[in-house]
């Protein structure tokens, strides 16, 4: 039986989520909610569902299984906390647009509430619900990557000073950490998906002259060093239209191990794998030879529309809830989203300490549900 879904917050991203639910066979979209009446009414008419202007009213009148929270707010996340908490308190499963919140303290409470109420809390960390990411995980599962050595991730917006316009929106202007809070959940979640928990963070943040001249305080260029729990080292470069990326496009991640390396380009478009070279092609420093990899093996998906990541991720949440997976097995869970925020807060702390190495706040433990654990 399809899961009954209500969506809260019907602007651009909210309409995207609503459209995904309306087309997914695992979902039955029954209601939309927005405090702006005209917006709710227009969405209700478009999708043929009931309009509500308060979440309390929607919860009172609809037998919902899932509440999808796509509200915005300051730094893209300040209006997530209250509706998510209200929905979970009512016993509903919740999917939240990223970031989980623009406040890590609120995010911790959100995860704790999901545990206390025994409901699913997911986040729209959609960047690794792709065929290239699936292929990369296959390489890892087959032992073709080996022991992880390094991870390099670039993610951002390609532009430059000629394209720069001061973003005077009240949701962004005057917030130095807005880019970090709104955006880093994506790259951190991808790095953690492939390489595991982060134990150390060191960050260097800046903004180019065009932003300084315009009195734009947003720290838009981010160079972040990380160390993972498995001793793999990593580097994340994120920037918000300050420059144009070269190789790999606007989104690329390269993960290398002792047996091979993969690189994903433009998120959903391409995955390339290079196996470690045989002895005849291995590096020979004494002969000034850098070595050559085997392969490569290339997966071109033929998909150039990044928007296709949204229905894939939303379907995965619906699938997990339908299948009643153990809460700790939920893909892109609230705990995963909280991890990304803990790393983001470590980035800010490192910057404020002049680039000091910071240990992220520990994640809440996973205890497991005895009703779902297998012998």
Structure description:
There is one protein chain. The chain is α/β, with parallel strands linked by helices and 375 residues long. The chain folds into two domains: 3-125 and 309-332, 3-Layer(aba) Sandwich (Rossmann fold), CATH 3.40.50.720; 128-304, Dihydrodipicolinate Reductase, domain 2. Helices cover 32% and strands 23% of the residues. The chain has eleven helices and 14 strands. It has helices spanning 12-23, 37-47, 55-61, 81-89, 104-117, 131-141, 178-183, 185-195, 209-213, 309-322, 334-352; strands spanning 3-8, 27-33, 50-52, 66-69, 93-96, 121-123, 148-157, 198-206, 221-228, 233-240, 251-257, 260-265, 270-275, 297-300. The strands form two sheets. Strands 8-9-10-7-11-12-13-14 form an eight-stranded mixed β-sheet. Strand 2 (27-33), helix 2 and strand 3 (50-52) form a beta-alpha-beta unit. Helix 1 (12-23) packs across helix 10 (309-322). The longest helix has 19 residues, at 334-352. It is globular and about 75 Å long. The model has no long low-confidence stretch (mean pLDDT 95).
What can be said about this structure in brief?
With 375 residues, the chain is α/β, with parallel strands linked by helices. The chain has helices at 12-23, 37-47, 55-61, 81-89, 104-117, 131-141, 178-183, 185-195, 209-213, 309-322, 334-352, and strands at residues 3-8, 27-33, 50-52, 66-69, 93-96, 121-123, 148-157, 198-206, 221-228, 233-240, 251-257, 260-265, 270-275, 297-300.
Task: Fill in the keyword field for this structure.
alpha/beta, Rossmann fold, 6-stranded parallel sheet, single chain, Dihydrodipicolinate Reductase, domain 2, 11 helices, 2 domains, 32% helix, 8-stranded mixed sheet, 375 residues
